[in-house]
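Subject: Interface between my chains keeps coming out wrong

I've been trying for a while to get a sensible model of this assembly. When I model each chain on its own everything looks fine, but I need the whole thing in one frame so I can look at the contacts. Pasting all components below, labels as-is. Any help appreciated, I'm running out of ideas.
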Amino acid sequence: MQKLRSLLILFVVIAVSLPLTISAQDEAPQIGFWEECETPTLTGDINLGVVFSLTGGAAIYGNPQLQAVQMAVEEINDSDYLGEANLVAIVEDGGTDVETSISAMTKLVEEDQVPVVIGPTLSNQALSADPIAQDAGVLVLGVSNTRSNLETDIGDFYLRNSLPEAKVIPGTVAQATEILGLENVAVMYSDNDEFTVSGYEVFVEALEANGVNIVATETFATGDTDFNAQLTNIIALNPDAIVVSALAAEIVPLLQQTRNLGYTGPIIGGNGFNTPGIASPDTGAGESANGVIVGGAWNIAKQNELSLAFSEKYEAEYGAAPDQFSVQAYTGAWMIATGIRCADSTESAAVRDALKGLKDFNSPLGSFSFDDDGLPEHEPVAQIIVDGQYRVLTSEEAAAVFGE
Ligand code: 1QQ
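Reply #2:
Try treating it as a single job with all components included. I did that and got this:
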């Protein structure tokens, strides 16, 4: 009898504590509007078009983007975020050129008839490929496009969660000017890419606003590999910093050549510098990347719980730390699912409207909203590469590279 009683007590204790442990797990922060929007009534497969640069120079950005979207899609389906419906990613390579991304978009829109596309990687591609979706009334969410005015140039079926350079560069330039006491800088940019030209214009405005003189401006083209002539001109003027708007394929040799010519000062870059691949000792510029200053949408030092959970899982799954591009892509896939959930629809316009209404969406990027102009809004971060690592920019970190 005694034995039976203790067994009974044990059973009661387990029965009482079991739901407690389950609900404690439930309380762990989770991405998504679980409370804000009800589980949708949708069923069956929902196709999500995915176009990223998986080949060519921009693959350094596109491959982490794809991995992150695949991770998000798996989580969305495993958690029944879309009720009985299932998100299915249809992946197309956008290459690094315009033509490949146009073909990819055409296939997704016309053949697969997807309601939503995530990508393409480059603004240059978005400007050529996204009008195909726009004309068909298919929603596109850019997750790495940072050129100015894409919303107005593409149309109302285009949204992005990637902060445009105009929301990042001014803060970075202001902080760098204060920390480094910049007076005279030289500027270099690629003049045949929509993003790099736009980034250049934003830099010029920000430098002027901070009272920094531009003592020289040099251009090059995407695909160039030798920057010695331009760098020699610039370095002869002894600038306090070199400001560069470029993409990874050009950034790597440009950094190497800059340091080989003996320039050890700060190099202030745009969004193209946000892949740690440029600092890789094997395939990147290695130590030549130290002293790069770049504003970003995310830094691994972000201590919000969703960012920490994402970083841990991404690293376990793919064997490398995540970068800004993967975080934006992961968040973007969850945002699209949230648009579908909150609209309880897969109609592009309905999803677009629900998505556009997102306010205070808790994500690894921080608290995300669209502003009144439909532009993404969250806190950017100024960074400096120290020993190959992206650190939050402070005077101490700057001193560690450039001395006091
Ligand atoms: C753009 C960018 C690139 C750096 C994305 C990889 O910001 O093309 O808009």
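Reply #3:
Confirming on my end. The CA atoms of residues 99 and 241 lie 36 Å apart.
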